Amino acid sequence: MKVTLIKVSMMDGKGYDAMKPLIFAIFDAITPRDIEIEYIDERIEPLPEIINSDIIALSVETFAARRAYNIATKYKTENNHIVMGGFHPSAVPEEALEYCDTVLIGDAEDTWLEFLNDYKNGTAKSTYTSSLKESLIPINFNSPAFKGKKYNKIGLVQFSRGCKFKCDFCSVSSFYHCKVRQKRIDEIVSEIENIREKILFFIDDNIFLNEKSATELFNAIKPLNKKWACQISMDIAQNNRLLSIMKESGCVLVLIGFETLNTENLTLMNKTANINIKTYEKAIQNINRHGIMIWATFVHGYDNDDAASINSTMQFAIKNNLAVANFNPLIPMPDTPLYKRLESNNKLIFKKWWLEKDYRYGDTVFYPEKMTPEELKQGCKNARFIFNSYKSIIKRLLGAKVNRKNALLFLAINIISRKEIHRKQGKIIGGKDK
Q1: What residues are paired with 40 via a beta bridge?
Q2: Residue 135's pLDDT is what?
Q3: Cβ distance 19 to 156 under 8 Å?
Q4: What is the signed CA dihedral for 140, 143, 146, 147, rounded to 10 degrees?
Q5: Average pLDDT of the chain?
Q6: Which of 104, 211, 221, 345 could form a disulfide with 85 if both were Cys (CB 3.0 to 4.6 A apart)?
């Protein structure tokens, strides 16, 4: 039996920021060795004209959904079985089943093996729903699944999966229902010891489940002498003890969802970790004071946003010398509270924007309260381009001691970010029909 696993890209062209996909490492760990499996990452390599495999499995995110459906249609034959999994098929399995034979809902560790056993017996079902509750399995990001593929020279590791918060725009919360599972500390240490790269990125949606587990993790990896970055919630911003431990253990950058400068918007999006922070400026200063750079994400389009607020947010990011910042138009992802609310209020421009042939990266897909869809689109585009201009990059590099101390990493991240923004902005999602 042969399986082909495809990581689907959301658009044509090779990306500059592609990192090793977690699903490749998971499949390598759980697929029985008597099954031949090939891995194709469409973000960095072209798809072949023909795939002669018994099973073709597609890992699909919402932005890549239309492309995934086109790929499935192209490769489907009477003699193969098309499987889809990931955030998007899990959110809308009925839609995905219009283009594939089976959908894996939720995590793959148990659904994939159950599907394979049924497929061998000729009893494959249309859907499999994960019921995993235990900790995560050990995985190897140096596995043969990545052989011959060129990714950024960042080592990946995963300590936990899921997030404790319930932000109404977040597909992670809907996918994991605010449940979080963690690996054992000794498993994480063992994985990191075998990672060749000098800089690591924890791909956890939020590495900070609680102070106890975070402290144990950071103390355990300190002797490994790795520099690392992670995604973390705003509730660590004033925790000096934890920030000190993070820095001592090698942390150089944290990615935090700032989302908005408007407290009423924070309440609307249920961003509880941010509401308790008195001022973002002091939070930024405190994190930077511990020698840690900040990658901030902002989302625009909530009810209290207007065209001027997008520009003021961008100016705030430059003034405070954020190492990196994303300025994203609010995108309602399927099966989230945000999507359901906009749909019930008839605010969606497209009911299924991810299937629209003319949808382009950066477009607005709903009607905002205090600006036009075009103003939201252009405001985010301008913020992205100005923040990532060479003038802004140099200003932010020189403007913060922490950025200067990590100048090579700062410049590398900003150059890649700038390239990706110019590559993606205005480009058709899904690319050419397969």
Answers
A1: 6
A2: 65
A3: yes
A4: 150
A5: 93
A6: 104
CB-count burial class (<10 Å; 0-12, 13-18, 19+) for 382: middle
- Rounded to whole angstroms, the Cα distance separating 142 from 257 reads 30
Rounded to an integer, what distance in angstroms lies between the CA atom of residue 403 and that of residue 407?
Answer: 6
3-state helix, strand, coil in the chain (%, to 5): 40, 15, 40
Q: Which of 50, 46, 34, 55 is nearest to 9 (CA)?
A: 46
Q: Nearest-CA neighbor of 213 among 261, 180, 258, 169? A: 180
Residues 6+ apart with CB under 8 A from 391: none
pLDDT in tens, 313-369: 999 999 999 999 999 999 999 999 999 999 999 999 998 999 999 899 999 999 999
424 SS3 class? helix
State how far the Cα of 291 lies from the Cα of 323, in Å rounded to an integer.
12
Residues 399, 392: Cα–Cα separation, whole Å:
10
Give the C-alpha distances (Å, rounded to integers) separating 347 from 66, 91, 92, 150, 365: 22, 20, 20, 42, 9
Q: Give residue-wise pLDDT tens across range 112-148.
A: 999 999 999 999 999 999 987 766 788 888 888 999 9
3-state secondary structure of 36: strand
pTM above 0.90, yes or no: yes
Euclidean distance between CA atoms 324 and 409, whole angstroms: 11
d(C-alpha 196, C-alpha 193), whole Å? 8
Measured between its terminal Cα atoms, the distance across the chain in Å is 26
Q: Determine contact, residues 17/152, Cβ cutoff 8 Å.
A: yes
Measured in residues, the chain has a length of 434
- Placement of tokens 């960095």 in the chain: 44
Q: Return the beta strands (E) in 276-411 as ranges.
A: 293-300, 324-329
On the 0-12 / 13-18 / 19+ scale of CB atoms within 10 A, 294 is buried
Classify residue 268 by burial, with Cβ atoms within 10 Å: 0-12, 13-18, 19+: middle
99 Cβ contact list (under 8 Å, min separation 6): 68, 69, 72, 73, 82, 84
Contact 325, 387 (CB under 8 A): yes
H or E segment at 313? helix 307-319
